Amino acid sequence: MAVARRAGGPGRPRRRGPEPGGAAKPKAGPKPAAAAATPWLAGTVAFADFVLECQHRLCGQARALELELAAAAGKGGGPAPAFVEDRWERPNGGGFGVTKVLQGGRVLEKGAVNVSVVGGVLSPERAQTMSSRGRGSIDPAGGQQYTAAAVSLVFHAANPFVPTLRGDVRVFEVEGAGQWFGGGADLTPSYIFPDDVAEFHAFWHALCGKYDPALYPKFKKWCDEYFYIPAREEHRGTGGIFFDDLSQAEAAGFDAERFTKDVGMNMVSSWEPLVRRRGRLEFTEAERRWQQIRRGRYVEFNLLYDRGVKFGLQGGRFEVSTCSGRAGRGRGLT
To answer: Are 295 and 164 in contact (CB under 8 A)?
Structure first.
């Protein structure tokens, strides 16, 4: 089944087919190593500094795109919106996070970039899930200490011809068991422009190739398999790359952490050319409605199948797990 309507080339597609000057410098969160309740593991503490830096870069790139389109629109278009920040802390030294959301822009109808640095004790349910994915050092009964750090983004575009961008990078560490990296980036278009899809994939093919030529085909296949809605027998979008459970021992010949960080820093860079190409195209109300239908499928996948959303809802903040949902006039998240 088609995931979206196919566009007819570089022109119009066929139917059916509040920081004023930019993002503020990242601020360090509460130092996790000082929390007596959670034995913070060294790899997570180091990665926590990176995810804050990465969040700053991603928000800065999105804000620059907003300013660019605002300047092109002239004075009649009004000012470009900025990201609104929400900082939070878990009790008893259990971690912290920074959520940044931009709404009502020319590029982004709603975009969220989240940082989470958390720790605790593995529950039996989580431990069994991890053990079933081949992590033999995880006790299925639970009880082991874990720490994790991640930065994730979801950008829902205002223009139906600009695809939704999702991406994240993360580290998950379990005391006495090991450290694993994961992440990726993918597109969910409402209208498919084949040239855009090819350019996005070419970007990630080149980045993966700097580390190992075998990574792109492996991680592309993984992305296609993961972002699939079985009940509808369709893929959620046009893919990208996705990887999980990547340890340094399994990353023969390349630095797993360096690769993961490179993916994180380049998530918006892979999407920018598509925004510049499609962000100023005019669209009809019917095309806008089709975009909303496709976003419903996006949320459907997240609630039914996405491991990250389930992890957040089980032990995190509801607002963080759902902040990427679309906000329309007079409506809550959808």
So the answer is: yes
Q: Tens of pLDDT along 101-157? A: 999 999 999 999 999 999 988 888 887 877 777 776 778 877 788 899 999 999 999
- Are 260 and 171 in contact, with CB atoms under 8 Å apart? yes
> CA 268, CA 305: separation in Å to the nearest integer?
24
Q: How far apart are the first and last CA of the chain?
A: 23
Of the candidates 29, 89, 54, the residue with the CA atom closest to the CA atom of residue 167: 54
Count of CB atoms situated within 10 Å of the CB of 284: 11
Taking only the tens place, the pLDDT of each residue in 44-97 is 888 999 999 999 999 999 999 999 988 887 765 678 899 999 999 988 888 999
Q: Which among 31, 54, 79, 120 is positioned nearest to 316, based on CA atoms?
A: 120
d(CA 28, CA 45): 11
Domain 28-320 has CATH 3.40.1500.10: yes
Structure tokens at 189: 């278009």
* DSSP string computed for 280-307: T----HHHHHHHHHHHHHHHHHHHHT-H
Q: Where are the domains of the chain?
A: 28-320
Could you count the other beta carbons within 10 Å of the beta carbon of residue 37? 11
Q: How far apart are CA 193 and CA 308, in angstroms?
A: 29
Cα separation, 158 vs 190, whole angstroms: 12
Instruction: Count other C-beta atoms under 10 Å from residue 326's C-beta.
Output: 20
Does the pTM exceed 0.70? Answer: yes
Dihedral angle computed from the Cα positions of residues 170, 265, 162 and 225, in that order, rounded to the nearest 10 degrees: -40
| Rounded Cα distance, 25 and 264, in Å | 17
145-157 vs 108-121, strand pairing mode: antiparallel
Cα(36)–Cα(57) distance, rounded to whole angstroms? 31
- DSSP SS3 for 47: helix
The residues, any chain, with a CB within 8 Å of residue 269's CB and separated by 6 or more, are 61, 203
Tokens of 14: 């066929």
* CA 115 to chain centroid: 10
